[in-house]
Amino acid sequence: MAADMGTIQITTSPRLFIPMNLYLDIFQHCKSEFPYEAVGLLSGLDSTVKQVWFFQNERKSRTNYYVGIEQIKDVINQISIQKEELLAIFHSHPTARPLPSNKDIRHHPKAGGFMVIVSLQNNINIKAFQVIKESYKEVAIYIIE
């Protein structure tokens, strides 16, 4: 998922704070898209998620996702109007662990903030990563009220 991120500020903080209600919304979206990968964006300020933006996986695939550029541009514009930052791109792994694949790393946009992966395998699990060139580093997620 790549888009011209315009003048939006991108956070580089090594942690992500997600309010419980939004955390539950992310899981619900991922479960509703099962058996396909779900996808969306997280925006906010100071590493705290304020809004979740849900997309439909136009590819209807269990192993990757695609969102049209016009949908992405519209949401990026709304994030900018609200004076928020793009904090992360999230997607689900319906039957795999919440770790970035080589394909995930290759396709993560440089200006995409963190990569958040929700695993629906066995116990539901969520992890965040900072993509650095061809590798990644786990980022702490804090669930807040």
What does this structure look like?
The chain starts with 14 loop residues before the first strand and ends with a strand. The chain has three helices and seven strands. The chain has a seven-stranded mixed β-sheet with strand order 1-7-6-5-4-2-3. With 145 residues, it is α/β, with parallel strands linked by helices. Helix 3 (102-107) links the parallel strand 4 (85-93) and strand 5 (114-119). The protein is globular. The protein has a single domain (15-144), classed as 3-Layer(aba) Sandwich (Cytidine Deaminase, domain 2). The chain has helices spanning 20-33, 69-81, 102-107; strands spanning 15-19, 39-45, 48-55, 85-93, 114-119, 125-132, 135-144.
The total number of structural domains is: 1
CATH topology: Cytidine Deaminase, domain 2
Largest sheet: 7 strands, mixed
What is the number of beta strands? 7
Low-confidence stretches: none
**SSE-based structural type:** alpha/beta
How would you describe the shape?
Answer: globular
**Helix share bin:** 10-25%
Would you state the CATH class?
Answer: Alpha Beta
Oligomer: single chain
> What would the average pLDDT be, to the nearest integer?
90
Q: Largest beta sheet: what is the strand line-up?
A: 1-7-6-5-4-2-3
- The CATH architecture assignment turns out to be 3-Layer(aba) Sandwich
Distinct helical segment count = 3
Gap between N and C termini, in Å? Answer: 30 Å
Strand content: 35-45%
Summarize the helix and strand pattern as letters. Answer: EHEEHEHEEE
| Radius of gyration from CA coordinates | 14 Å
